[in-house]
Amino acid sequence: MFATNSKSSYAHSAFGLKLATINLFNFIEPPGAFYEFSNIYSEDQWRQKRAWLNRYIGSYQPDIIAFQEVFSASALKSLLEPLGYRFFAVVDEPEPLEEYIYKSPVVCLASRYPILSALPLQAEPEVSARMGIQQDFEYSRLPLFATLELPSLGQTDIYVVHLKSKRPILEESSDENEPKKLAQSMQVEMTGSWASAIQRGSEACHLMNSIIERRSHTNNPAIVMGDFNDDLRSEVLRAFHVSGLRSITDDMAEMPLSHYQLHDSWDLYVKNIGETGMVRPATHYFHAKGSVLDYILLSSEFNSADPASLAEVGDFHCEDTHLVNPKFDQDTYSSDHAIVSVTISLRQ
């Protein structure tokens, strides 16, 4: 069984909070260009990209949206304001390569509910030292850490992330005209891919360290949304697997281990509805092979099996029509990722 893509799949209750994470895939307003001068949208292409996002929001009406791959944050803010997103946060800027050409897109957060604070999440040098990496380590894309005031839940911490991709980190050749040999190319590809994995795994560890630190000082529920660029179950992202820590026991602190645990919203949804055999829809395709890269993680307050829970995942939705059954006139300039969204309901 597949998770349905139909609007009727959404569960409704007296309180329903809808969360979504969207990789906008090079969202840049012309005449800006992403990475190369040739990558400038025409006015019609730019209109089509914005119209695709408008259609999704009009159909599913998420209350809080985490965005990745944004070059033009002000244009995104202007698009969202008329749709009811009065609150918007961005904590970084893309890096200019030369006039009108940019790299390093940023993450953003839009909300119908008040954003009380929004800060960049920096890597901590002492954490890097414990990990055995250079203390000047930095995220490849600066995460956004925000605290929102949400109905029934109160102050809630939200993290918007875009972890390092699997694209190999390659050193520039000293002589570009030198012909590459097969063995040399294999070595460069292998080491570059491992460097990317180290970066991505280190980012996950830094992120989880910050979440644990925050949770140790607050009772705020926590939500992590974004593009993880890896399978959550992978060894590279093991920092998110708090339950797998071998030397930790519940009697070590006032708060139980579950207080620091993050749960995949898909797993919580499947448990809540009591279905077996459901096949999780992919959120990205590479050479026709699907994988799940985009996640919404939730703290114990959203786990109905936890005695301290306040709410539960009432529905899970993966909007992938533009990937699996695209319409040329609507989806050509949409995104190369599916949109993941969940509906949170208060426990009865």
From TrEMBL:
Residues 39-337 form the Endonuclease/exonuclease/phosphatase domain. Coiled coil: none annotated. Keywords: Endonuclease, Exonuclease, Hydrolase, Nuclease. GO terms for cellular component: membrane. Gene3D superfamilies: Endonuclease/exonuclease/phosphatase (3.60.10.10). GO terms for biological process: GPI anchor biosynthetic process. The keyword Ribosomal protein does not apply. Signal peptide: none annotated. This is Endonuclease/Exonuclease/phosphatase family protein. It comes from Grimontia celer.
